[in-house]
Protein: Serine/threonine-protein phosphatase
Amino acid sequence: MAHDSETGSEKKMAEGGNDAELLKEKANKYFKDKDYENAIKYYSEALELNSSNAIYYSNRSLAYLRTECYGYALADATKALEIDKNYIKGYYRRATSNMALGKFKAALKDYETVVRVRPNDKDARMKYQECNKIVKQKAFERAIASDEIKKSVVDSLDIENMTIEDDYDGPKLEDGKVTLTFMKEMMDWFKDQKKLHRKCAYQILVQVKDVLSKLPSLVEITLKEAEKITICGDTHGQYYDLLNIFKLNGLPSETNPYLFNGDFVDRGSFSLEVILTLFGFKLLYPDNFHLLRGNHETDNMNQMYGFEGEVKAKYTAQMFQLFSEVFQWLPLAQCINSKVLVMHGGLFSEDGVTLEDLRKIERNRQPPDSGPMCDLLWSDPQPQNGRSVSKRGVSCQFGPDVTERFLDQNKLDYIVRSHEVKAEGYEVTHSGKCITVFSAPNYCDQMGNKGAYIHLRGSDLKPEFHQFTAVPHPNVKPMAYANTLMQLGMM
Ligand SMILES: [Mn+2]
Structure:
């Protein structure tokens, strides 16, 4: 779908329409240069002059899709269709927004409409069929889930008897254990785009499931005076940038602890390499290497944004099932020295949530649509007081007063969260009480942002920011394994 720029068809515009058109042209140019923030700004200005133009809404909807603001994208696509119910692109936009939000049935309705209106459009038919397939598969999964207690993949594996072929000369666990030598060999092996033997991958997954399932939903650690921890944000399958973090900041070890704050997989096409490396270090240093769940360590996201496709391409559907089981055991939040709380998304849709409430969350599941578990994975801060509807269409946005009250009630100093790309790799908001850290530089090969990580020392718990830029990676584009409906060029 080309981006809408046809100007000729709108000669019948109201007064001020030409100014609005100029603003749209300006916005289109920013869009083309992938500067989505400015594109949104000028589409919005165009809409202020002429709020009855479906194309403006539709174009802004696409810019919102690109910046992951699916809630806003959905609202704009809906608006475009209210103005012009024959506007085909509006249906595509609304369908894509709904897909991104995991609302597959709603998306299917829009694809149905397009196919009905354009029976000879092959592209439309393909999208309809793709979406229909997902809806059917979801219905099937629900049927199974209610029929019997879901069995673990672990029970159907016979890892002991998996043979490693003689021609495999890659890394192997030593007596079934992850060692530092194994980790170094595996990282080099991955760097050369080679595949770890499936037996080793399964060994890591089964062991890490066991380790993670013994952790509480809220992990609490204490740093001594002289100790330091490094907190990283989203890595999103950018394996070569992960290696660069280790190069700049040192390999994980008992004296160089790390906390990776979710969204390890999806989008970047080296998600398996990232997650197996992180799981390997979790096994090697269970008390000094920490992982929290992000909103992308979930089935719906993995189906749309590439991780499921990548695991199926490199291994099997069964292995993806096991990943899904492991992800459900990732802890949801971590508290450092009873003062700093770390989570992937942010704070809550309601006041009064306590650390005790977080400890009690039964996390071994796909996240619900609302409530504390959903908020921890999905919410975002906002500059104004109070709460508002999420731009993403899930959870909420919370203001500085919300942060203040939460910290007061729980006797905390500040929160660290990730989840949003930031130009500088980090951002300090809410008077220093809400910090965002993001560690995927030049996100999706196109955002031009820096990455960052944070050092926290036991002595003062003051955040110290370190920035870095993207390094080259082999020529496999982000989203290469994503569902065809989500691939960038097709939106
Ligand atoms: Mn996220």
Notes: The first helix runs from residue 17 to 32.
